[in-house]
Amino acid sequence: MTGSVLVSCRDAGRTYGSGPAAVVAVHDTNCHVHAHDRIAVMGSSGSGKSTLLHLMAGLERPTSGEVVWPWCADTTDAAGPGPGARARAKGIGVIFQSPSLIPTLDIAENTGLPLVLAGENAGRAHARALAALERVGVADLAAKLPDDISGGQAQRVAAARVLAARPRLVLADEPTGRLDRTTGGHVVDVLLAAVDEIGAALVVATHDPAVAERLRTRWTMRDGRLLLGPDAGAP
Ligand SMILES: Nc1ncnc2c1ncn2[C@@H]1O[C@H](COP(=O)(O)OP(=O)(O)OP(=O)(O)O)[C@@H](O)[C@H]1O
């Protein structure tokens, strides 16, 4: 715990479905991510890691409790187009297991697209995209199409796409899940260096102990319950 609180889950839970078919993906959970944190969320498949990250990102609403982003205007507005949601979208970057690049846009265009969609002019978005690609070591790919780069390179581009917006908090859901160990290790290296450089906090959901070891704090999910490490408690 080294800085101000970026996101707090307060008795936040998420259940899918209802009645006998209901699945409690995340039981009521209390946890906090602070500025500059480096947190690995570990746990077996289906333990609730992705759901917890989606709650922290505001991509899903909790079905119990609340998720709070103290730096947003409307701190608990977990969905919809309000000012809190817009501020949160700018301040939180999410990296998924699949890089999901648009095949008809080149790498620089893919990287700058979220900035353009957020209203940045095309020239500035391109410059920031190139700087972010440089930061993760793939500036030479800027003019290529996604089909012409490797999986590890594509995941670096996905990281650059998030980092170009200079978020306060980066949430990465199995960012190395589709990569071999060596390539995955390089992706973690560039991610850690980049969040250090932009001063962001990082939360990584991972199955891989080698990835988790690179992060200062380790949390474990088991059957939808978050087992916190000794340093993950109070805001
Ligand atoms: N949209 C959904 N509808 C119904 N059930 C869901 C949905 N999303 C997740 N679940 C269920 O919630 C539980 C937690 O899923 P979640 O994806 O969060 O786990 P995970 O730890 O991230 O798993 P993995 O490592 O395989 O990605 C699982 O039982 C899953 O089947």
TrEMBL record:
<feature type="domain" description="ABC transporter">
    <location>
        <begin position="7"/>
        <end position="235"/>
    </location>
</feature>
<dbReference type="InterPro" id="IPR015854">
    <property type="entry name" value="ABC_transpr_LolD-like"/>
</dbReference>
<dbReference type="InterPro" id="IPR003593">
    <property type="entry name" value="AAA+_ATPase"/>
</dbReference>
<keyword id="KW-0067">ATP-binding</keyword>
<dbReference type="Pfam" id="PF00005">
    <property type="entry name" value="ABC_tran"/>
</dbReference>
<protein>
    <submittedName>
        <fullName>ABC transporter ATP-binding protein</fullName>
    </submittedName>
</protein>
<dbReference type="InterPro" id="IPR027417">
    <property type="entry name" value="P-loop_NTPase"/>
</dbReference>
<dbReference type="GO" id="GO:0005524">
    <property type="term" value="F:ATP binding"/>
</dbReference>
<keyword id="KW-0547">Nucleotide-binding</keyword>
<dbReference type="InterPro" id="IPR003439">
    <property type="entry name" value="ABC_transporter-like_ATP-bd"/>
</dbReference>
